[in-house]
Amino acid sequence: MDFELSEKAIDFRSQVKKFIENNLTSEIISNMHKTGTFNDKSFNEALASEGLLAGAVPGYGDRDPVELYLLFNELEKAGAPYDGLAVTMLVAGIINAVGTEFHHEEILKKLLTGKHNCCLGYSEPDYGSDVASITTKAEKVGDKWIINGQKMWTTMAHESDWVLLLTRTNSEVPKHKGMTMFMVPMATPGIEIQPVPTMASERTNATFYDNVEVEDQWRLGEVDDGWSVMGIALALERGVMGGTNPAVPLLKHVLNWAETTPSKNESLMINNTLMRERIARTAIINQVGQLLTLRAAWIAATGGMPGVEGSMAKIYASEEYQKVVGWFQQMAGAEGLLSFGAEDAAASGWIDYDARHAPVTTIYGGTSEINRNNIAERHLGLPRSR
Amino acid sequence: MSADQEAIKDVFSSFFVEQTGPESARNSMPLGFDVKAWKRISETGAPGMGVSPPAGGGASLSDLVIVAEEAGSQIAPLPIVDHVVASRVLEKLDLLEEEVLTGTLVAGLVVRPVENGVAKSVPTGAIANRLIALNEDKLLLITEDPPNESLPNHGDLPIAHREIKNANVIAEGTEATEIFDRALNEWKTLISAFLVGITRSSIEMTVDYVKDRHQFGKPIGSFQSVQHGLADLPGLCDGARLLVNKAAWSGDREMSGEIKLTDNEISDFATLASMSLVFAGETSLQATDRGLHYHGGYGFSEEYDIQLFYRRARAWSQILNSPSEECLHLADLLLKDSED
After folding, report:
1. Is the pTM of this model over 0.90?
2. Domain ranges, residue B303
3. C-beta atoms of A280 and B338 within 8 A
4. CA distances from B222 to A367, B112, B217 (A)
């Protein structure tokens, strides 16, 4: 792996940085926290019209694929709304890998305009980590599919034009071999969205599918081969598309706070010995998170599937983030509990926000336990334990 | 890794496996130095590989971290890291003796500042014929036969206190501190690579053990609690190696690097070397700690190798500094721009 980015990648990064400087307003950031929707279509559209989105699709076009990592890393570091975009570009990557010409024309091209979003329909109320047991059923009737069931954690469903939907199409075979993936247009009659509020500001959803009728052209991958499509999705998702440097914006907010806040014994918090040790440790965590992510991106860039490496980056970054948030929230004492807008809130409320947000990071996108299973089996060669 | 570096890795991997390894570590106790293996490695020219090409060397820091990791993976009781770093300093000051270049004489670094005329707990103190030390703003070269007797210690290292006598001042003022800082950063980087080697081998031997050891009629490696304790480690090991490689890359560059803390863009050598030591150190503690634990009672017994790795991880990760102290040094580097 090269620590020196290519000139092209450096150019791309400065383009992204410049874009963020010119387009990411404090209104966009406060609005995303107010609404709980970490997606901003006009921001996405502006990104697309600058030509920055095409490089964010794994394997698409002629851009250096490390740019995917750079785009999301810069957005994450700046605290920009990128959750919706990450899912959308992930789906674009899947379509690029296994989609038909129809999918390219009807979906991928539109996704690249920044005007459209997708959401992921894998989890169900009764099946999360055990996703291969899902029961949402797709039945072939004539030349159409009829879908019935319920999905959980369909974040961005209310912003989306399509849901990447994992369905059961065959109950007669082992469960991994009886699933099929669809790109279901959200406008199809029979789909209902219910918001699920969370302890952080993020909004997610439950979605319901009642006799939803779709044509076969919306099927992605072969019938009963949805598990392979999932495999591609997971390898693309983990590690590369943001989420591995969450303590970078946190550290920025904490530094601003520590440089201006008196401490009990020293003049300012920034001179407190324990604070300084923890700042140094956080800086190490941020570097390692970046390097593990860059490696996963590098593997993807050279034609590999960084499944295990993505798991490593994901476990590391999310668990260390939780540790870091815990350190700084405790160091801030009572003011570390105060939220956005509250007088005297430590780091203007960011510490409270990050402490609320951090717990979900070891859960979504594959729990730490699922990722550990992945590493134990596929990297260490230990026997399957389930 | 370039093709040349792959070749370096293969050559040194074979050397350390064949000529050192845990047996050599056991047999060289209590001194902590395998004289025979040192002679053999000297025959390959390795002690001089870190100096410039005209002097017979030519290895970059990025090459040397590969050697150091392979040495660490076999806990080689050889002063290769210290010797290479010290000989680079000696060459810079035009003081490189032929005997040091060939490894006939062992050179080392007094990694901590000298206090009251004594260099305490020097990593190669028991065996080094030449020692580089910083005494306030004077760089010293100590030319003296070593005691060949080490202080009994946790990691079976050739540690000894050395009085500062028979010492010449070889540089002064900012030149002295700059040369010493550079050497110490190289030492941190290479010791971190040695620690990555310790981590890597500890993971490998523990994974082998849990596949083999049966309880309740199954390999203990089939239990999820054991699997998950182990599954944390390869990511940490790889993260440490990436950080060490990045430190070496920045150390090899002609230009000076940057520290952009709030943007997480860091290419400054001193900063990355310090980060490497803290992270590779703590990663090695965790890997050897879990490794020993999953060996059960056997891990605690002298017979099994994991305890050798466990003790060396602790020794190398704190022989310079407590990790908290190193973090405070790192914080000074990271925050220097934001201070008034």
Report:
1. yes
2. 178-338
3. no
4. 20, 46, 11
